[in-house]
Please model this.
Amino acid sequence: MRVKYLALLMSSFFATGVMAAKSTVSLEEKLAQLEARLESAESRAANAEAQIQAIQQQQATQAKHAPTVAVESLEPVTAPAVPKLSLSGYGDIKFYGDVEFNMDAASKTGGLTSIRTSANEDWASGNHERWDINGRILLGFDGYRRMEDGNFAGFSVQPLADLTGTMFLDDATFFFGNENNWKIKVGRFEAYDMFPLNQDTFVEYSGNTANDLYSDGYGYIYMMKEGRGRSDSGGNFLMSKTIDNWYFEVNTLLEDGSKLFVDQKYHGVDLENDKNVAYVRPVIAWQGDTFSAAAAMEKNVVNNAYGYYDQSGQWVDQSERTGYGLTLTWNGQKNDPDNGVVFNASTAYLDATDETNFTAGMNGLWRNFELGYIYAHNQIDEFNTANFDADCDNDCWVTDPGDYDIHTIHASYLFPNVMKMKNFNIYLGAYASWVEAHPNEGEANNDDRYGGRVRFKYYF
Model:
C-alpha cells in the first residue's frame, strides 16, 4: 500500500512540475510578445508624429505664398479723413499778426495837423474834440526760400481789419536777391525810414502812407515820406545793396501824385491829374555797432504830372517836388538792453512848387520812457484865397502866403509783459502841439492842440 501511495505521490509531483514548467515557458513568451508589440507601437507613433510635422510645414509654406483674398461688404465702413495742411515744399511759411486797439482823446483833430490822427484808415479829420476807440487787427503771411549759395526769394502779405468793419492792406510784396549782398523788392511797402519817431504812439499826423500827407489850409510836417511808399494809388520798385557797413537803396514809387493832397486841393486850387508821378528816392546809410547815419533824396521826375488851368486857360504845373533828408541814430540798447539809450536826430527839407518846408526833430528812449520834439517851418509863396475861407469855416491857419511854424512835444511810456505775457504790451502816449501863423507878427496868431492815447498791443 505504501509503495502504491508513494508511487502515486511521485507521479503527481512530477506531473505538477511538468505543468509548472510548461506554464513558465508560456508566460515568458507572452512577455516577449508584449514587449515586441510595445516597440512596434512606439515606432508607429514616431512615424506618425514625423508625418504630422511635415504636413504642418507644408501647409504653412502654402499659406505664406498663397494670394490674399479681400472680402468687402456691400456697404464698406471707412474711417473719417483726418484734416491736414499741405505745403508746396518750396520754402518756409510763417503766419503771424498783431492786435492794436487805441482809446483816444484829442482836441480839434485835423485843425493843426496835415492828415488823420486816428489808426482808422478811413477816418476823416474834423474841427471838434474826439473821444473814440479805434484800431485794427493785422494778419501776416510770409514765405521765404533760401538756397545754399545765399540766393533767396519770398513774399509778404498783411491784410488789416479795423473797427469800422473795413478791410485794408498794409504790405503786399515780392522780393528776391542774395543774402547780405543785394535785393530787389516790388509791391506795396515802405522804404527806408528817414524820420524815425522811436516809441511813437500818437504822433501820427505826419502820415504813415504816401497818400493824404498834405491837407490844404493846415501846416505840413514834412518827413521824407512822399516817395517812401505804401501808397493806395501805386506801387514801389526797390533795389538795394549791402557792402560791409554800408547800405545803398533806390526806391521808385509810381502813383497818382494828386493823391498826396487831401481832396486833391493844393494852395486853394483843385488839382487835375494828367499822368502818374515817378518818385525816385536814393538812400545811403552807414550802420555800425551802436551808431548809424543815413542821407537821402526824393524827387518827382515826371513834369506836368498834375496841376490846374488858370483863368486864361493856361496849364500850371504843380508837380515839381524835391526833398532832402538826414538822420542820425544812437542805439545803446544793443549792448545794454536794460539801461541803454536810443536817440534819434532827423532833419528834412522840401522844395516844392510855390512852397518850401523844413522839419527837424529829436527823440530819446530810456527804460520804456520816450520823449521827443519836432519843429516844422512852412514858407508859402502863393495861395489862392478866392473861395478858401468858406471851405475852412475860419478854422484854417494857412490861408495866405507867409511863414508858419509848428511845434510838437510827444511822449510815451511802455508797460511790457502785461499779466506776465511777453506778447502783450500797453502804451500810454500823449502830445502837445501849437502853431504860429506869421510868427513875426506876434503871438496873437497862436493856437494849440493836444491829445492822449492808451494803446493795447498784442502779438501772435
